[in-house]
Amino acid sequence: MTDQTIVRKATAGREGILIALGSSLTIMGSVMVAPMLPKMGQEFGPLNPDAGTLLPLAVTGPALAIALFAPFAGWLSDRLGRKAMLIIATILYALLGALPALQTDLNDIVISRFLFGCAEAVIMTCCTALIADYWHGEERFRFVNFQVVSIGIVGSIFFVIGGVLGEESWRTPFYLYLGPLLLIPFMAKILWEPKKNREHLPPADPDARVAFTPLIVGYLMILGGMVLNFIVPVQAPALLVAIGVTSTTKIGLSAGLGLLATLGGSLTWPLLRRLIGLYGCNALLMALLAVGLWLLASANTYNDVLFAVCIHGIGAGIMVPNVMASVMNALPDAVRGRGIGGFTSALYLGQFISPIIVGMIIGITQTDLVSAITYLACASLFVSALWIVSKLFVGGSAPVNSDSAV
Hints:
Layout: H1 3-10, H2 12-31, H3 37-44, H4 51-80, H5 82-98, H6 106-134, H7 137-165, H8 184-190, H9 212-229, H10 231-242, H11 248-298, H12 302-329, H13 336-365, H14 369-393
Helix pairs in contact: 2-6, 2-7, 3-4, 4-6, 4-13, 5-6, 6-13, 7-11, 7-12, 9-12, 9-13, 10-11, 11-12, 11-14, 13-14
């Protein structure tokens, strides 16, 4: 083992923490804005006749940008390297994230949020690709889980902080986006570029091929899962207002609690993966999402909502590491950035189309928001049943502890 290899091993903890913090920036992209929608509506509603359409885009617009830009970001990262792109994107994230605090036109805010989403696409794609580059086997599983746990912690904290700061002005929370500038010097010093350090990584397999079936299934799972997952941050505020809860602090606390609950799912995922496998985890998480959404649609009090988002959050906490592990294992080194870019695109496309699908269900069925959420809960339960059947007849003996797991 060379001295340089020893250095790489010794700094793995710092690298993991830094990548996890970088990944957490993407959840901050939406969680600090959602509690502000009611106050933004009060300011811009009377001035802009399209405010009803534009305001949700302030939350979901970045998700659309990520969905569109992430594959290109992955392609670039395979060619130009991850580290430099991650540093540049973090700088743009901070500047574009804080920009709405200074803007007075809702259309300009939506545009700046879209550009902000492009920076998020690079950050998420590069951070996830670096995890797959730096770690392998069980070590990779641990860092995938560590990434998701960190996102849950940071997201829940900033959801509450955003709600508290927004009590006085909806503009104030946007200044928090400048905080990631503090990560730049640490990224420059600690992270290293895999393409320039191949001798410190396991040798690449020249015959490795993309496992298309688990890759496509993973894309579909994260797409549909995010449609269900994003119902809480986007639709829960409206449900809370309908039962008389209008405080941005309480609204932020409810969504923050849901994110915090993802930690329960993420922390138990390694044990669940060993006990019931990836297929079994998919069945369980879809069932938990279904129960959480049904309870949310049935909620009559603030405490009912808190309980619902907790159940929902546990399922969401299992989903991301479980699906991400399958996708990583399906990708050889040569196309990892592009493949993870596709995963990132599917993840955020699901977030973006979530309110669109809810609106379509309301329009088609001529019902209300509560009924639409109930229909989606039933769809989630149906997918859970499909995974149970798959585990019984297909995946019962599938390996779950190696890089070949699907």
